[in-house]
Design goal:
With 328 residues, the protein is of the alpha/beta class. It folds into two domains: 196 residues, NAD(P)-binding Rossmann-like Domain (Rossmann fold, 3-Layer(aba) Sandwich); 116 residues, UDP-galactose 4-epimerase, domain 1, CATH 3.90.25. The protein has ten helices and 13 strands. The strands form three sheets. It has a seven-stranded parallel beta sheet with strand order 3-2-1-4-5-6-10, sandwiched between helices. Strands 7, 9, 11 and 13 form a four-stranded mixed beta sheet that branches. Strands 8-12 form a two-stranded parallel ribbon. The structure holds nicotinamide-adenine-dinucleotide. Nicotinamide-adenine-dinucleotide binds next to helix 1, helix 4, strand 5 and strand 7.
Length: 328
């Protein structure tokens, strides 16, 4: 059993990981300012409503719990918004991470798992993308995450912090046993937007049907949120056992096009997905698929969800728990 601080644990991926950490017997506290997350995602008595920039509250929390490790999810996540408000993204994501790193240094916490992103690669030259691919973000969001990765690399070299950065591809799905799921506001992720279109009848806009992919729409690597949580558990196990720092892609290695996702959603729900084909969205690469062999080999991780329909089905289950069965 270890004492773990989860930042951003009231959000989508952080709350799933918190539940899995508790199920493993760890003692978990959650820090979240609820700017985006929800108190109802966090098991009772574990939530501390604190912003990463509030150093005195952070100091109190760290002094009271003497954590063995931190799992750091807290960040803003919308790529498009980051292009409109870059200062806010750099301040919250890069600045907030630095404030956290300074605080844990003051309190002697030397292990951290960080939520990075495939957005650090920008428009990759080839897929599947290995971790060694050029790091050329095309959004302030991606850059803000790369800045944190850079700080972590230097803290590892200079001050002995040990970290794992997981570069997530497209998180999706929900774990029914925990009663939580994806509730971003505004929602920018494809699968919940498809369900919204089914529920409201307002057509979804597909951004671009003229990419150099088999059906012309963008291809992404979808990873179930429970498989992401298990990657965090494996990363923590390694760090707590004295393992070295590392950077790993977290994806399944299998890509699906937007139209394939729409088709899977139609099959799972038994409903027609209303959509219109729109122009390309600036900065969207045609294809993002992870080479996840390093995570599999080094940390012994393997995804449990390997079919798109199983992932869509689990997200649909949450959608129905949240809004009631669509069409009723
Ligand atoms: N969802 C994805 O597909 C995806 C893909 C790649 C990377 N990521 C990364 O994973 C992490 C979690 O993503 P998510 O989808 O769960 O997002 P989310 O918005 O659901 O969760 C983020 C949480 O962080 C909190 N937060 C933000 N800034 C904070 C601050 N300064 N102080 C305290 N709390 C703060 C929010 O209130 C929210 O609860 C993020 O770092 C994101 O960049 C997500």
């Amino acid at each position: 059993m270890a004492r773990i601080l989860v930042t951003g644990g009231a959000g989508y991926i952080g709350s799933h990981t918190t539940h899995y950490l508790l199920a493993r017997g760890h003692d978990v506290q959650v820090l979240d300012d609820l700017s985006k997350g929800y108190a109802h995602n966090v098991p009772k008595g574990r939530l501390h409503v604190v912003n990463l920039h509030d150093s005195s509250s952070l100091d109190q929390l760290l002094a009271a719990h003497r954590f063995d490790a931190v799992v750091h999810f807290a960040a803003f996540i919308a790529v498009g918004e980051s292009a409109r408000e870059p200062e806010r993204y750099f301040r919250n994501n890069a600045g907030g991470s630095l404030a956290l790193l300074e605080a844990i240094e003051r309190h002697g916490v030397r292990r951290l798992v960080f939520s990075s992103t495939a957005a650090v690669y920008g428009n990759p030259e080839r897929v599947p993308i290995p971790e060694s691919a050029p790091l050329l973000p095309v959004s302030p969001y991606g850059e803000s995450k790369l800045m944190t990765e850079t700080a972590l690399k230097w803290l590892d070299a200079c001050s002995g912090l040990r970290y794992v950065a997981l570069r997530y591809f497209n998180a999706c799905g929900a774990e029914a046993a925990f009663g939580i799921g994806e509730e971003h506001e505004p929602e920018t992720h494809l699968i919940p937007l498809v369900f919204r279109a089914i529920r409201t009848g307002v057509p979804l806009t597909v951004f671009g049907g003229d990419y150099a992919t088999p059906d012309g729409t963008c291809i992404r690597d979808y990873i179930h949120v429970s498989d992401l949580a298990s990657a965090h558990l494996a990363a923590l196990d390694s760090l707590l056992a004295g393992g070295a720092s590392g950077v790993f892609n977290a994806g399944t290695g299998r890509g699906y096009s937007v139209l394939e996702v729409l088709r899977a959603a139609g099959e799972v729900t038994g409903k027609k997905v209303p959509f219109v084909m729109g122009p390309r969205r600036e900065g969207d690469p045609a294809e993002l698929v992870a080479d996840s062999s390093k995570l599999r080999k080094t940390l012994g991780w393997a995804p449990q969800y390997d079919s798109l329909s199983a992932m869509v089905e689990s997200a649909w289950g949450f959608e129905n728990r949240r809004h009631g069965p669509a069409g009723t």
